[in-house]
Specification:
Largest interface: A-D, 33 and 33 residues
Number of helices of chain A: 3
Number of strands of chain A: 4
Strand order of the largest sheet of chain A: 2-3-1-4
Helix content of chain A: 25-40%
Order of helices and strands of chain A: EHEEHEH
Radius of gyration of chain A: 14 Å
Largest sheet of chain A: 4 strands, antiparallel
Oligomer: homotetramer
Structural class of chain A: alpha+beta
């Protein structure tokens, strides 16, 4: 089952600069060969359900290992059976109507 | 790794009454022996990371099988390494300060 | 316009114990006479759109004044024109199908 | 007070194609002179708190007027007092660490 996810990961107890942690997750998604698109409030991820969630789990494990004692993550995720849709499809379907 | 999750699952293309679908997910969580607490805007779930996410995957698969062609889910999830915390702990820590 | 909101507010740069901040927001909602229900991963709030969002703004302002230099909030919010629905209605519609 | 928001708006009861509704909200943000960045799972919005939330309210009102009887929205929002941060700053702070 394919899934489109948007992930916003917030490590707590590490001060105010979260970007080193977000960057580490980006590397994990890249190493897992998942398609991603970074934006100012999270990262779009496209891939097979189990591969995407294995990568998200690895993010949590890695950020804890980097010293974050607590992590709060927000996910939006979508699956559909009517048709195949990519991250690019979703953006294009909106912009062509603007 | 233990995780606390809050899940809000929104099937699309099935009209305006979403409760039969939410109820089906509740049954899946119960069958997986996960601790849950239903509220007006989602369900708290507590359990082992892999068991929780296997149940969430099963929710998506089951709702698609029930006829929902598209599903949009929002998850909040937290892990921590500093201490063990249950759903009840989180509520109590707030209410005792109110 | 009436709105049902679920709010999860995460102050950053204040350590790992967030409950004093969450409790402060609960007091703000209560003082605004909004109907609320606390759960382990947020708070349901029911009320008039402008009153609810004025209270949420006040939460951010108050938590900054308490010393939180950065706040990350997640909101789920719903409006509907087909019928009036309360927080209790939403929970009941699910539980009667379980 | 300045705020950075990420909004994902899901109209219910209008079928599976949500892009006409998302596009309408984009127009509302543009008309309000708010800075935005569209991505595959939402839209980043930067601006003054009251102006941003007035635009979000207008989105809900407009989508109801377009025929959506129910709307479910997810917002991530951040405020900070330690420094000024733009949408571009947030992306750059991550990419320069990758």
């Amino acid at each position: 089952m394919k899934v489109l996810v948007d992930i916003s990961i917030v490590p707590l107890g590490v001060g105010l600069s979260l970007s080193p942690y977000v960057a580490e997750c980006e590397k994990i998604f890249a190493a897992a060969h998942l398609k991603t698109a970074l934006h100012a409030y999270g990262t779009n991820v496209e891939g097979d359900w189990d591969e995407v969630f294995a990568a998200i789990r690895k993010c949590h494990e890695t950020l804890h290992a980097m010293g974050a004692p607590r992590i709060s993550t927000n996910l939006r995720l979508g699956t559909r059976t009517d048709r195949v849709q990519t991250l690019e499809d979703k953006v294009r379907s909106v912009t062509e109507k603007m």
